[in-house]
Amino acid sequence: MAQSNAALESIPALLARNAATFGDKAAYREKEYGIWQRWNWGQVAKEVEELALGFLNLGIHEGDFVAIIGRNRPYFYWAMAAAQSVGAIPVPMYQEQNAEEMAYVLGHCGARFVVAEDQEQVDKVIDVQDELHQFEHMVYIDPRGLRKYDHRRLHEFSHVQEQGRAARDEFLPELKARIERLNLDSTCVMLYTSGTTGKPKGVVLSNRNIITTAQSSCEFDNLGPGEDVLAYLPMAWVGDFIFSIGQAYWTGFCVNCPESPETMMTDLREIGPTYYFAPPRFFEGQLTSVMIRMEDSGRFKKWLFDKFMGVARKYGPDILAGKSVGLKGRISYALGNLFVYGPLKNTLGLSRVRVGYTAGEAIGPELFEFYRSLGINLKQLYGQTEATVYITQQPDSDVRSDTVGVPSPGVEVVIRDNGEVYYRSPGVFVEYYNNPESTADTKDAEGWVATGDAGYFEKDTGQLRIIDRAKDVGKMADGGMFAPKFVENKLKFFPDILEVVVFGAGRDMCTAFVNIDLTAVGSWAERNNVAYASYQELAGHPEVYSAIAEHLEEVNKSVAQDEMLSGCQINRFLILHKELDADDGELTRTRKVRRKIIGEKYADLIDALYSGKSEIYTETEVTYEDGRKGSISATLEIRDVPVVPVNQKVAAE
């Protein structure tokens, strides 16, 4: 959708344009109590204006930070637009963060105002408010449980809007003046990094970053006002901001908010998005669910699924790419679509997807090809918070499972001598807030940003291939390349494996920790009358160990075929007695592995893997849901895995 950039230099300006241009067209939907509520662009503009006037009444100044805490709801997206309208800066936060984590972000940005969802989030802020010297007021959406709280600094969302309406004549001139002062260089949002290697950093993104990126990415995929997206990923993540604010406001398409995480799959099916994003973990979870259902189904249904999935793998990707597969292929695939693919896509809620993306972590080729074989236009993009998401993306005409595409419009990408990927674009962040040293380390004087990832451009396709995090790519003791993610992603294709951490840098062999998927393995246990009382008990079951060992052996055969990475085959492994958890510091809030912390925390287990032991006793501190600390102990089995000798592989070739 081509637009003129004249005067469209802020989110409030785009909102005014949409209210005038689209009027009654749906802008937001939210499912509440089982019923979809709908707001058109005209209504959204009114909601945002009333809230912005209420913010002025509360005393929000230009340049203030407004923290946003809760799940995806239209009210929060309006709060972000209202904050921008008064010249303030929204700071969306992860709702799963504990009070201590919230205190760090709120204190670091000096947030004077917080918009929270409910009593749970309000309580977290109250618990740490004595540490927050700048904090003044909190606005909440859901009033349940808050009636007896001290409301001198606590305000209901609807009441703030009511006060804004009442004071409209008084504050409207000031609101208009503040909106008019906004330009492309004004700060649009501040988003905190996941903190994989240390404390989260506040990434300052300008209107130029958001609007220019939204325009170019929408034009790349021909996104228009007719799209429907599902807003279910954390609002603190840059992807949700660019999809649900940047692109939505640029094109005027509709943002749909599910009722709760528990109803997300049902809501996904009801909405049937046309433009869809999910991280690899979500696609892995969907595939696991499908495979469990197939294992539980009757013999004929399982046979039918296996037969037509074979047809899909053979013909599906070529049909999706517009290539000829012959009459037999088209007929076979059409029958498969009638009996298997169509019903399956409907069950997954992906029947209407025209453009689908995955990013955040590398996706296993098998997983990627499974969805494309169904006729779902799933593509990969590569990005960062500091890039306003987009660095590379895949055009419809050239989608590959092992690359992340070509540079996005307006983005320059180079590979430096050390193999690290650098980029420069209009989406490059302004700075890390109050952190000039990190800003200078990440972005040079010419605007080039170090991604921290190692990769290379394929000569025949011009597409970028990411090997791993540059800091994680190392050398084995024999000089061979060590790239743990390459192996981990292959293993996570198996439904019963949830997470893997591979070790081997500087060592003579690779070893691994494995987390089983409790849903998938629990389903197996029920089918086979295997009794278990906990994750730990099931993880230590001999048959579970044997199944995981078979997966590792299969992946070793695949890894052995890669000349550069054949040394990354897994020699020994253990199944961890607990799931890796963000509350225990082992994962980020976006569920990325914190390798350094895991290496330090489980040093005894790593030593055991390399010492030749067959078992190891360990005790581990854990954090319970209510924040209490405890410990669990276990004696873990360590198993060897057959590997393919490199010279044997070469001889076979």
Keywords:
single chain, 653 residues, alpha/beta, Rossmann fold, GMP Synthetase, Chain A, domain 3, 3 domains, 5-stranded parallel β-sheet, 5-stranded mixed β-sheet, 29 strands, 40% helix, globular, disordered C terminus
Q: How would you describe the overall organization of this protein?
A:
- This protein has 653 residues and is α/β, with parallel strands linked by helices.
- The chain has 3 domains: 11-271, ANL, N-terminal domain (Rossmann fold, 3-Layer(aba) Sandwich), CATH 3.40.50.12780; 278-376, no CATH class; 474-652, ANL, C-terminal domain (GMP Synthetase, Chain A, domain 3).
- Helices cover 40% and strands 22% of the residues.
- The strands form 8 sheets. A 5-stranded parallel sheet has the order 4-3-5-6-7, with helices on both faces. The chain has a 5-stranded mixed sheet with strand order 12-13-14-15-16.
- Helix 4 packs across helix 5 and helix 12 (299-320) crosses helix 14.
- The longest helix has 23 residues, at 326-348.
- It is globular, with a radius of gyration of 26 Å.
- Mean pLDDT is 92; it is low at 648-653.
